[in-house]
Amino acid sequence: MLNNLTPGVRQMLLSTLLFAGMNACVKQLHHLPALEIIFFRSIFSIVASYVALRRLGVAPFGNNHRLLISRGSTGALALICYFLALQNLPLATAVTVQYLAPIFATVLGIWLVREPVLGWQWVFFGLSFGGVLLVQQGGTAVAHVAQAAPGAGLLYLGIGVVGALVSGLSYNAIRKLRGREHPLVIVFYFPLISLPIAAVACLFNWQTPHGTDWLWLLACGAFTQGAQLTMTRAYQLERLSRVAPLNYLGMFYALGLGYLFFAETFGPLAYAGMALVLLGVGLNAWYAARADARAAALPPLAEEVVV
Fold first, then answer.
1. Are 90 and 139 in contact (CB under 8 A)?
2. Cα 146 to Cα 191: distance, rounded to the nearest angstrom
3. Per-residue confidence (pLDDT) for residue 253, from 0 to 100
4. For the EamA domain, which residue ranges apply (predicted)?
5. Element (H, E) at 143
6. pTM for the complete prediction?
7. DSSP string, 88-120
């Protein structure tokens, strides 16, 4: 059956699986500061990316420095928020909230890249945001968070939403860099910015990893780098509309891993909320792809009349 899949689809399926592995590693390391995990992850990623770029003969630092730094900075901040959410919320809840990122990217794109939002898209956005509210009402908080403070779950949910918002800014920076820089250069700037930020934070809040922590940190770095590379290849090999929806398989991985390894359970409202988030994001992707296809099919004169 896998032989019938295109190379791009196979790469994206592998990417979602590797990202799920990264999520599980971060969750397993909940006792370490999030920025410390990012520090070790960034070291692994920056070395692997630099070696790959040198082998390809591509200048690692690129040419569009302002945009690359913007992408790296927003990506680093988004990653910090996401890791905090992963460590302190049920795995599936953190992943669900992160799925708001494409919606924020679309809304912010109205001003940043001058891409309009079509009428029905606002309805789909409303579905997804309503789903997040249901997840918050029906999800069960992770035990160590619930014991720490009654309102901790809501706090980290808010941090997750902020992370998704900043991810939207990062995605728009990537859009502006499309065709200007090699994809691996864009990936390289992520750890290039996050490493010094994490290093400074570690000076004030360091907790030495012990025993199997080192294996989990190494696995986190390997999963992340593999996921980034396979995702980049998937977008290079296949149409965006064909491979992007496969990202949502991560929800099912998160539910399964959360249940098997972290004993996470949810109420009916939370499952309904997750379904609404996926429905809203999926409908938005389908509707946007359909609108793009229709616009591309218009003859030149018809396009001028529409404009």
1. yes
2. 32
3. 87
4. 8-135, 159-283
5. helix 143-148
6. 0.82
7. HS-HHHHHHHHTTHHHHHHHHHHHHS--PPPHH
- Distance of alpha carbon 220 from alpha carbon 163, whole angstroms: 19
Residue type, 68: L
Q: Which two tokens stand for residue 47?
A: 């070395």
Helix 91-98 vs helix 152-177: angle between axes, to the nearest 10 degrees?
40
Q: Which two tokens stand for residue 165?
A: 């918002």
Cα 136 to Cα 88: distance, rounded to the nearest angstrom: 13
CA distance 266 to 140: 6
Q: Across 152-161, 216-225, 239-248, which has the greatest mean pLDDT?
A: 216-225
Nearest Cα neighbor of 243 from 7, 72, 18 is 7
Q: How far apart are CA 291 and CA 307, in angstroms?
A: 15
Rounded to 5 degrees, φ, ψ at 201 are -65, -35
How far is it, in rounded angstroms, from Cα 240 to Cα 195?
Answer: 30
Cα 207 to Cα 126: distance, rounded to the nearest angstrom:
41
Beta bridge partners of residue 266, listed in sequence order: 139
> Cα separations (Å) of 267 from 42, 174, 193, 253?
36, 37, 39, 18
Q: Which residues contact 241 (CB under 8 A, 6 or more apart)?
A: 285, 289, 292
- Per-residue pLDDT at 146 exceeds 60: no
d(CA 115, CA 104): 13
